[in-house]
Amino acid sequence: MITPGNVLVVDDEQAFFETYRDILVPEGYRVEWARDRESAVAKLQESTWDIVVLDQRLKGEAGGDTGIDLVSTIVFTGAKVIVATGYADPAMIERAFRDGAYDYLEKNTMLRTLLRLKVRNAAEAIRERRLGTLDAKEREREIRSLWGAVQTEADRNRKGKLLEDLMVLVFKTVPGFMHVDTRRKSPDEEIDLVIRNESTDAFWSRERSQYLVVECKNWSKPVGPDELVVFRNKIGNRGGRCHLGFFIAVGGFTDGFHSHAATFRKDDILVVSMGRNDLEELVNETDRNEVLKKLHARAAMAGNGH
């Protein structure tokens, strides 16, 4: 199953490892630590890593660039390397990229924000690369494997990441919905998935929605009307270029969600809700375009009522 999310932190300072862990674990990544070159090499040999956050100098200023010496070794394993440094200079950055580093990160006041962004970009690049190698049969096996993992995963953060990965792959099987971006963030909101609507199918082109927005909730409890209002605001906040959203909820929806949805039937925003049974159908049917059309019709004609 393709789930790029294994991060190895190579840093001699435990405080930095704990900072990275506290930032990345809530994002759904598995994070482990190597405090020196020897333990880093051992971990690279015993497991597969998607991303390595590598300290430039593993032994402080007196140790030189002993961390950066590892870049070419790590790249050889297929992992994306993000070099973390408190001593950034053009020569170091040039060497890191020459040796195959994916990106670099300065240990400054922007560390938390940039770490989350850079690791997410690296993870997306890995996932796109792996998905691009799948043939049709492998892709379908991956979809079903992800769906099984979503239903059995106990860790809340990991479950959420698996659900997003599943929906990215499912929507990409629909002609015209190939361009899917994940976790778009601004200071006041986060969007799980954004899909460019490039469908030539008359059904979707008539939507006048240049973008489709997707919300993924992995909650065990049903989603209520407050979350619907927040999601509709995200759709309406797209400068008139988005009128359609898909609300995915593994735990289903409350009656209040559906009754509240019916009160919005006179505006031009449509929210298509999908619970567990809908997801099951979407995963298992071969023509997902037709399944989405059916769910769209249900939402449009019944105000999301069931």
Key descriptive features of the protein:
elongated, 10 strands, single chain, alpha/beta, 306 residues, 12 helices, five-stranded parallel β-sheet, Trna Endonuclease, Chain: A, domain 1, Rossmann fold, 46% helix
Please provide a written account of the structure.
This protein is of the alpha/beta class. It has two domains: 6-130, Response regulator (Rossmann fold), CATH 3.40.50; 134-302, Trna Endonuclease, Chain: A, domain 1 (3-Layer(aba) Sandwich). 46% of the residues lie in helices and 19% in strands. It is built from twelve helices and ten strands. It has a five-stranded parallel sheet, sandwiched between helices. A five-stranded mixed sheet has the order 6-7-8-9-10, sandwiched between helices. Helix 9 (225-236) packs across helix 10 and helix 11 packs antiparallel against helix 12. The mean pLDDT is 89.
Summarize the structure.
With 306 residues, the chain is of the alpha/beta class. Helices cover 46% and strands 19% of the residues.
